[in-house]
Amino acid sequence: xxxxxxxxxxxxxxxxxxxxxxxxxxxxxxxxxxxxxxxxxxxxxxxxxxxxxxxxxxxxxxxxxxxxxxxxxxxxxxxxxxxxxxxxxxxxxxxxxxxxxxxxxxxxxxxxxxxxxxxxxxxxxxxxxxxxxxxxxxxxxxxxxxxxxxxxxxxxxxxxxxxxxxxxx
Length: 169
Ligand SMILES: Cc1cc2nc3c(=O)[nH]c(=O)nc-3n(C[C@H](O)[C@H](O)[C@H](O)COP(=O)(O)O)c2cc1C
Prior knowledge:
By secondary structure, this protein is α+β, with helices and mostly antiparallel strands.
């Protein structure tokens, strides 16, 4: 599957089969995230890999949707703002870097037939406790990783003419 097909096939998967994810596939999606570009190549993120089996109750405290723990794996992208490149006005890019790495994983997962769903609406305090995140670490997003149970729901996108400004705003 080429990158355009993966982009077209990806959707937010909110229903998963309990089937395990092969170690080889997990390694490949993690490697795709590792290959992502980061500002000044500082790679200020870490990837949490969590097995959901037996941890359903505490994971539901982080994000209370049943489908969160249907998948065998949960992946979290954690930014380390202290290690991130900063723009001249001080804006840190660690969360941008983490998001790019996560999207690499998401597209690689799609190409391997796996489902994902970006989750930002988690409880950050519960996540800090359940995953043992240190103060300097910022969980940016989570995704289940597993085989999709249901196909895509209809979604829409703004037309390109609305999104693109040519030459000037
Ligand atoms: C940064 C970000 C955060 C998101 N957070 C959530 C979330 O917390 N829960 C959820 O169900 N979907 C979440 N989504 C998924 C979006 O709702 C979804 O991508 C959008 O509706 C388009 O649907 P599609 O992904 O199926 O194309 C998030 C997506 C992004 C990019």
